[in-house]
Design brief:
Chain lengths: 225, 154
């Protein structure tokens, strides 16, 4: 049996990597601006987060094979099978998200989306600063939303922690460095496993879609009269 | 049971009931205070919502400015002695309110003055002027909250 030659293959395209590392940069910045009460900046960063999440959801349908939800969201049987093999030290060449990690991506994205949506309806403790959509809800709702926004952040932190622990597990136990492909975009894979990537125009369309959504939301979701 | 024991028990019981009544009264004061501040908050939100519109309704701004101006001078009365955290009721009012009465009354006075200005600005019917005065009111809310209210979330 001949082993396929391992080549440096492009695994993650630029949009995936930009979105991923922007999340990493934005989360602490969002936490800090909330902690120090700099709500004007917090709101701007929140809009950026909204745009990124919208883009990533779009990319889950329009992006390349490793970005698409259909490519990595697997049923319980596949996940269970993967978990069984997880404890073995044998490397497994999965192109893109593995069956378990795929669900982690879904959970993180859904949580980020929920968090950013709640933020749109949140008003600050003094009632001076508010998200762009608080005019659509009552005072009590906007006040309560602040509580949920803080509460959900802790859940998000827990999930991010789990994500980091999983990466350490792969690095130390499975001898599989997942971080450098997320930086460079490339990793060694059998040449035939090279994923297909989406053309530039689809990425640009996604940027326009995300930008338009953010603009509309920041204006308070006006409907054409 | 001797009469003495009985009278002592009655005394103890009535003291307990009295203490209970005091706590209940303090809890009512906290509830009333929060209800009042929510009214201020509601009016403030109504104005902020209006400013988000392309064409803010001056009538809505005026009505809510009036509400805020009517409530603002009452603030010191919403903080009777004993209605702080020592009452056992859930409140973010810090004991500093009753320790630094002068400072607190000054902060409350700033709010009342800014609210008066807001009402005067509302009377002009000029949305831009109302907005400036509204922002100034917000500053006095924050000015007092920063010092006299607990930063605990929830």
């Amino acid at each position: 049996m001949s082993t396929p030659e391992n080549n440096r293959v492009k695994l993650w395209d630029a949009p995936i990597r930009i979105v991923h590392w922007s999340f990493v940069a934005l989360l602490p910045a969002l936490w800090w601006t909330s902690e120090t009460g700099d709500i004007a900046t917090h709101r701007l960063l929140g809009y950026t987060m909204l745009g990124l999440v919208v883009f990533r959801l779009y990319w889950g349908f329009a992006g390349g094979t490793t970005a698409r939800f259909a490519g990595f969201v697997r049923g319980p049987r596949a996940v269970a099978g993967y978990v069984k093999r997880l404890v073995s030290r044998e490397g497994e060449s999965i192109v893109g998200h593995n069956p378990l990690g795929g669900w982690s991506v879904i959970a993180l994205l859904l949580l980020l989306l929920t968090q950013v949506l709640i933020g749109l309806f949140t008003q600050d403790v003094d009632g001076l600063e508010s998200g762009p959509l608080t005019h659509l809800v009552s005072y009590d709702f906007a006040d309560a939303a602040r509580g949920w926004h803080g509460w959900l952040f802790n859940i998000l932190l827990g999930l991010v922690g789990l994500h980091v622990v999983a990466i350490l597990f792969y690095l130390l136990f499975k001898r599989d460095n997942l971080v450098s492909p997320m930086i460079t975009g490339h990793r060694r894979l059998p040449a035939h496993a090279a994923p297909a990537h989406a053309p530039l125009w689809r990425g640009l369309l996604g940027v326009a879609l995300a930008g338009g959504t953010v603009w509309w939301v920041s204006m308070g979701c006006p409907l054409p009269a | 049971m001797t009469n003495r024991v009985l009278s002592k028990s009655v005394l103890a019981l009535s003291m307990l009931m009295f203490a209970g009544a005091v706590t209940a009264a303090a809890a009512d004061q906290v509830t009333a205070r929060q209800k009042n501040f929510k009214q201020v908050g509601g009016a403030s939100k109504a104005m902020a919502d209006e400013f988000k519109k392309a064409q803010p309704s001056v009538q809505v701004l005026q009505a809510n400015a009036k509400t805020i101006a009517a409530l603002a001078p009452q603030v010191p009365r919403w903080f009777p002695k004993g209605s702080g955290p020592e009452s056992g009721a859930k409140t973010k009012a810090l004991p500093l309110i009753w320790q630094n009465t002068a400072g607190f009354n000054k902060a409350a006075g700033n709010f009342a003055a800014a609210a008066r200005n807001l009402n005067a600005a509302a009377a002009t019917g000029d949305a831009a002027k109302i907005r400036t005065a509204f922002t100034a009111v917000g500053g006095t809310c924050k000015g007092c909250h920063d010092t006299f209210r607990s930063k605990d979330r929830s």
